[in-house]
Amino acid sequence: MSFDGNADLSIIRVVADTEADTPIANDLAIQLGLHLDEAKSTGDDIWRLLVSSEQRTLIRPDGAKMNIDFTQGKAALRQAQPSKDQSLVRALGLHKLTEAQRHATHVIDATAGLGQDGWIIACQGCKTTLLEQSALVASMLQHAIQYAARQPALASIANKVEVINVRSQDYFTQSDSRIRPNIIYLDPMFPSKKKQAKVKKGMQFLQALLPETDNDRLLEHALDTATSRVVVKRPSGADVIAGTEHWRGQLTTVETDATRFDIYHTARQSPG
Ligand SMILES: C[S@@+](CC[C@H](N)C(=O)[O-])C[C@H]1O[C@@H](n2cnc3c(N)ncnc32)[C@H](O)[C@@H]1O
């Protein structure tokens, strides 16, 4: 049985899309500690990770599919969207910066998931580090970034992104590799299961495969590390996340209909 964080991934088999894809599928299966299946059969309780040179596609037992692809749909058009129209960009304070300042800004997305928010950040020109505790999700994300880097129109964005498979608390506390980014972004929470109908497909996949996360002290470590701000995404109306009770600095919010971003301003005021 193989574990990814606390998740039991023994229900997932890796499958090569074509015979030519077998070597990469085999390597990935070894890397993730999963079994390689020869057949693409469905109709059982098994999830499959279909591997081709272009895509990593997760297939649920009911046949529903999910992949990460920044070259299609909204993600591919992000760089053209005005920054002031994007609530995440406003919460991160990037809309107020010049292009040169954004390029000099380092953002760590410490709960990367499917990288949708991380990609929005990278499209602003920031150096973007994506931390993801699940080896499976991190490998899908890494592949999607590498694939985007092969598209001339997206290469300059993708090349600003680094994906690291790590529990963020461990990353922030490893003193020898301690990096102080300007901004840390956290979106640790899955949407409530009660609102399942509204949850997007990608998030349903993560919710089904990944365990409740132990995010003990995540906010505290982030607050100690970011030089400018920590931004936490919350559902509208939800409480602030655990760890906020110790915070004595400035806390502001940016709100949309469904989402609230809590902004902890960590920049030290220079003495009077
Ligand atoms: C709600 S999803 C994030 C979705 C993401 N904002 C996006 O746009 O796709 C939360 C993700 O954070 C990861 N995660 C949660 N806590 C973490 C931690 N302490 N360290 C690293 N990754 C974490 C989970 O494995 C999951 O993939």
**Strand order in the largest sheet:** 10-9-8-11-12-14-13
Residue-averaged pLDDT: 88
The CATH architecture of the largest domain can be given as 3-Layer(aba) Sandwich
Q: What form results from the Cα inertia axes?
A: globular
Order of helices and strands: EEEHEEEEHHHEHEHHEHEHHEEE
- Give the bound compounds: S-adenosylmethionine
CATH class of the largest domain: Alpha Beta
Structural class: alpha/beta
Radius of gyration: 19 Å
Distance from N terminus to C terminus (CA atoms, Å) equals 59 Å
* Count of runs of 4 or more consecutive helical residues: 10
State the helicity in percent bands.
Answer: 25-40%
Tell me the CATH topology of the largest domain.
Answer: Rossmann fold
Strand content: 15-25%
Low-confidence stretches: none
Describe the biggest sheet? Answer: 7 strands, mixed
Secondary-structure map:
Layout: E1 3-4, E2 7-8, E3 12-16, H1 22-32, E4 35-37, E5 47-51, E6 56-59, E7 65-67, H2 73-77, H3 87-92, H4 99-103, E8 106-109, H5 116-123, E9 127-132, H6 135-149, H7 155-158, E10 161-165, H8 168-173, E11 183-186, H9 201-209, H10 218-225, E12 229-235, E13 250-255, E14 259-265
Parallel strand pairs: 3-4, 3-5, 8-9, 8-11, 9-10, 11-12
Antiparallel strand pairs: 1-2, 5-6, 6-7, 12-14, 13-14
Residues 110-111, 113-117, 131-134, 137, 167-169, 187-188, 190, 206, 210, 213, 215, 218 line the site of S-adenosylmethionine (SAM).
Q: How would you explain this protein's 3D organization?
A:
The chain is α/β, with parallel strands linked by helices and 272 residues long. It folds into 2 domains: 3-67, S-adenosyl-L-methionine-dependent methyltransferases; 73-265, Vaccinia Virus protein VP39 (Rossmann fold), CATH 3.40.50.150. It has helices at 22-32, 73-77, 87-92, 99-103, 116-123, 135-149, 155-158, 168-173, 201-209, 218-225; strands at residues 3-4, 7-8, 12-16, 35-37, 47-51, 56-59, 65-67, 106-109, 127-132, 161-165, 183-186, 229-235, 250-255, 259-265. It has a 7-stranded mixed beta sheet with strand order 10-9-8-11-12-14-13, sandwiched between helices. The protein has a 5-stranded mixed beta sheet with strand order 4-3-5-6-7. A hairpin with a 3-residue loop joins strand 13 and strand 14. The longest helix has 15 residues, at 135-149. S-adenosylmethionine is lined by residues 110-111, 113-117, 131-134, 137, 167-169, 187-188, 190, 206, 210, 213, 215, 218. S-adenosylmethionine binds at residues 110-111, 113-117, 131-134, 137, 167-169, 187-188, 190, 206, 210, 213, 215, 218.
